[in-house]
């Protein structure tokens, strides 16, 4: 539903007189710039960053090289992002996109409402110290409430907080698998099999443990619950 609404917005922009009067080269440049902005917004203003980093940690901790493939990791991260962002995207559609398509509000009002909805999501996931850091670097002082923080300050603060949270979760995931590597290394040394790489023995043990505890369900559940406030 939201994707259809965004498509309609894009179509209306393409049909506008201002866009039609521009040269073909400028149209291509504007289109490519919009696509680049959308991909950047997906990474920096949604739950995508935390999810993809945590899933990458899982793959590295299991020592399975490129299994699952990168395409699978990115695809799962994208759909988990849509799942986590579902309530926010629904509110964004109802309060900003749909009224704009119905011409009941102007583009400026739609942008204000939409950015405010995304700001609320980002503020709920941003640590106070990270927000204060970026406010200090940007020399932003006259802020009466967190909702008044400009996007140029909020977005990098949100990304820093997401990176920190993702690395904390990655550490908690990595630790038990590192212990398995240590135990296997000690056993191989005790048996005098120092020439055998520990990863040859530890990888099947990691996979068995991950399967027994239903690891993917636990990871997805933990990621989903980590965004609840």
UniProtKB/TrEMBL annotation:
Major site of localization recorded for this protein: membrane
The UniProt entry's GO CC annotations, sorted and at most eight, read:
bacterial-type flagellum basal body; plasma membrane
Which InterPro entries does UniProt cross-reference here?
FliP, T3SS_IM_P
Instruction: Name the residues that span the membrane.
Output: 28-58, 166-195, 207-227
Entry-linked Pfam families: FliP
Q: Where in the cell is it found?
A: Cell membrane; Bacterial flagellum basal body
Membrane topology according to the record: Multi-pass membrane protein
Keywords associated with the record: Bacterial flagellum biogenesis, Bacterial flagellum protein export, Cell membrane, Cell projection, Cilium, Flagellum, Membrane, Protein transport, Transmembrane, Transmembrane helix, Transport
GO biological process terms, alphabetically, are:
bacterial-type flagellum organization; protein secretion
Entry function:
Plays a role in the flagellum-specific transport system.
| Family that this chain belongs to | Belongs to the FliP/MopC/SpaP family.
**This protein is called what?**
Flagellar biosynthetic protein FliP
